[in-house]
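Render this sequence as a predicted structure.
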Amino acid sequence: MAVLSAAIGAYAVWIYGEKESLQKRRRFATLRLPERDKLAETLLDETVRQIRNDTLFRQQWEATPDSSAPLRQYIQNKYLNQAFDRYQTEVFFFNPSQQALGKDSLRAEGSFADYVQNYQRIDYDTPFPDIFFIDKTGVNLIKRYLALITLKSRLDTLGYLVLDLRQNQSLPTNVYPELFVDKNYTEPKESKLYSYAVFEHRQLVYSHGDFNYGRSFPTLFLDEEALYFDKIRYEGYTHVAEEGGSKKIVVSVPVYDLWSVFSNFAFLFLWLVLIVVLFIVIYSLVNRLQGLRVSFATRIQFYLNIAFFLPLFTVSLTILSIISGNYRQDFALRFQEDTQQAGRNLLPHLERYVNGQSGADDIRQANAEIARHIGRDVNVFDRMGHLITSSQPAIYETHTLAPYLNAEALDALRFRGETVVMLRESVGKLNYQTVTVPLKSYENGRLLGFVSIPFFVFTYELEKRLVDVLSIIINIFSTILIIFLILSYFASQILTVPLRLITQKIRKTSFYDYNAPLEWNSHDEIGLFVREYNRMLKKLDKSKEALARTQRETAWREIAQQVAHEIKNPLTPIRLTLQMMQKRLEAQGEKVKAIFERPIDTLLEQADVLNDIATSFSSFAKMPIPASERFEITELIYSTESLYASQAVELKLKVPAQKFYIRGDRKLMGRILST
């Protein structure tokens, strides 16, 4: 029953898992499709018109035409942060000659004229002037909007402004998007296992992952409806696709193999077995006083299973604990190395910032580039623990996190001289690990600040690896359990064969019929039992003989008593009649007396003989039960001999001149000696 239930459950989990996997892959493909965002286009057009009409902004630009930092901060805070929280925004400023201002020249894609030449194209046009949707296939496959703005003063052109918006696609390795980014724009953690490809006009333009789309994916599948509404299984993978404009994105994962199905079956089977065992144990404890009976074979199976699986379960838990510890240590070392590498890359920028050789904009840009490169959130703090910059500034601007380094990390790194600190932190229900390292100058060893990187992926990757290991253990455990249950069943049946044979033999054992002894050639516990059984049969035979003898004696006594009764009944009147005849005969003459006297005497003598015979039968029928007493036998012999010493019989006794004591019935022994 447990096997059938687990099989049904595993099938249901398989079906549900397939549906959930399809939904996640389709959402992943939808996020990757660069479809137009009509709401964002409308908001961006409104933002462009507001910036052009912002008198205060134009006045600030006229006052500081060569400084873009305060202008950028003004635009970000007033127009971009709240309205475009789904996008990463960049603002670039250009002078009237279309050259980037200050540090923008390092980050911008050339001059304003280059932007116009590269992106002001008809295939990028939107319904709104000066706003362009960059429908361009690349590694990121994200929605991107550019707003090319020309700002005019009352007399001449004031300058140019470029707003660059890129869709926020949260990586599964980042922590803060779990708090800050809309869940609809967060990629599933399983996306690291996905292979995907972009097709445009039936041509492969980009692919990522293990699956070889160029060689193994027929483009004919792009015309199949099942690819867009269900799935297609091919070359050991299942493929789904989403379509957007001229582009089609195919997402593929390995087929849900039998090993995974068996893992689900094994997990459910073990749970069902555990529930059944707990139910039996609880039921047995509750009904102990009610005389619950369990068969001997069942107890044998139970003890065999306990003896085998208790050590196996202990070893499995030990192995899982050791592997978990090793995985945690490996992850911790990897995270520490990533943080130290990020710190080494940031150190020159932080040192220039601390020495006043660069501004906050420079270190912010450097930190953002490093964060994008390693695919993680990076936070930089000064030597007092105050936030300098973050790759996710909105998380601090919205006061979700305080702009300070963890006090425990600050104490360990600054005052206790630790080189790296890894702490568990939480925000609400979100738990994650944070690794912090100090940044010191190479020249004089002066502490410049700290780099802190949160790692949310630690829990997911650790759980995934532990699940893989646990699946292997459960599969092995379940396989051995099923095999051992079968073997223990047959073993219990084999072990109880002698008991069943003995039981059948005992059932046929009769007090009246012949009982053949059992044969068992082994000197084990069963052999001991068989020997005791055969010994019991011998005692039973002796008891049967004694009982038969007793029954015969009883029958003979009853017969003797009946015979004595039947004999004595006619003897009494016969004797009386003969005695009367004998008296009357005395009154007759000698002649008559001589004729009848002898026959009458003979009849009387025979009547006495018959009476003695009847008395003997009667005595046999009433044989007393012998008493058990201790007496001296030589005295009894001499006493019996003295009774017959006066008769004409010569008795010769040969008795030793000492006393002999025996146990028995003194009177019966005297009668025996007399006889």
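Summary. The longest strand covers residues 157-167. The first helix runs from residue 2 to 32.
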